[in-house]
Amino acid sequence: MRAALERRDLPDLTGQELRISELARAGYSNRQIAETLFLAVRTVEFHLSSVYRKLGVSGRRELHSALGAPPS
Question: What is the pTM for the complete model shown?
Answer without folding.
Answer: 0.80
